[in-house]
């Protein structure tokens, strides 16, 4: 299965970076250039293993995904439950480790395409497109994590929840 990967160093601690990555709603839209909508399903109010979310991309593609791992502040993994017709399967993993006084963020998407006759071309195109998208998304995420105003807004929101 094809896999795309992006990596960035972020000058913020891993616990904050992990929590920032799990934001939803209006705040998520401030940093995530990929999505136009995202929300928890089936009454869930927070991320966790087994929780499902519905995400709509800015390209108007919808996907229901499920957390298959949730280990703050180190990693989170998702798999597609339902999604665009051309994906046979799709999974994502985001890893955050302490590095050089900050966080090393590594994001990966693994996927396969269908139908079988289209798979070779679709996976080549998908690798190129998703490779660009994951780089763009992680670059925006890293910049947002290091933005003093967004970081202050995020921390104030977190204090309000605690």
Number of domains: 1
Low-pLDDT segments: none
Shape: globular
β-strand number:
7
Secondary-structure element series? EHHEEEEEEHH
Task: Tell me the CATH topology.
Answer: Alpha-D-Glucose-1,6-Bisphosphate, Chain A, domain 4
The CATH architecture category equals: 2-Layer Sandwich
Q: Strand order within the widest sheet?
A: 1-7-6-5-4-3-2
Write down the Rg.
16 Å
What is the subunit organization of this protein?
A: single chain
Secondary structure category: alpha+beta
Helix content: 25-40%
**Biggest sheet record:** 7 strands, antiparallel
CATH superfamily: START domain
Mean pLDDT: 95
**CATH class (first level) name:** Alpha Beta
Q: Tally the helices: what do you get?
A: 4
What percentage of the residues does DSSP assign to strands (E)?
35-45%
| CA distance, first residue to last residue | 41 Å
Structural features:
7-stranded antiparallel sheet; single chain; 162 residues; alpha+beta; Alpha-D-Glucose-1,6-Bisphosphate, Chain A, domain 4
Structural commentary:
The protein has helices at residues 14-21, 25-31, 119-145, 148-161; strands at residues 3-10, 35-40, 52-57, 62-71, 75-82, 87-99, 102-113. The protein is of the alpha+beta class. A 7-stranded antiparallel beta sheet has the order 1-7-6-5-4-3-2, covered by helices on one side.
Question: In terms of topology, how is this protein built?
Answer:
Blueprint lengths: L2 E8 L3 H8 L3 H7 L3 E6 L11 E6 L4 E10 L3 E8 L4 E13 L2 E12 L5 H27 L2 H14 L1
Antiparallel strand pairs: 1-7, 2-3, 3-4, 4-5, 5-6, 6-7
Protein name: SRPBCC family protein
């Amino acid at each position: 299965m094809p896999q795309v990967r992006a990596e960035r160093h972020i000058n913020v601690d891993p616990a904050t970076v992990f929590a920032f990555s799990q934001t939803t709603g209006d705040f998520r839209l401030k940093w995530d250039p990929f999505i136009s909508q995202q929300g928890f399903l089936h009454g869930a109010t927070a991320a966790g293993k087994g929780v499902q979310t519905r995400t709509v991309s800015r390209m108007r593609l919808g996907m229901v995904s499920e957390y298959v791992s949730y280990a703050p502040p180190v990693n989170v993994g998702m798999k597609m439950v339902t999604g665009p017709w051309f994906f046979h399967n799709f999974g994502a993993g985001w890893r955050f480790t302490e590095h050089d006084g900050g966080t090393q963020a590594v994001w990966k998407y693994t996927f396969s395409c269908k139908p079988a006759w289209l798979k070779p071309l679709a996976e080549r195109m998908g690798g190129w497109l998703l490779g660009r998208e994951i780089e763009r998304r992680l670059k925006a995420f890293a910049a947002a994590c290091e933005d003093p105003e967004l970081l202050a807004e995020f921390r104030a929101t977190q204090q309000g929840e605690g």
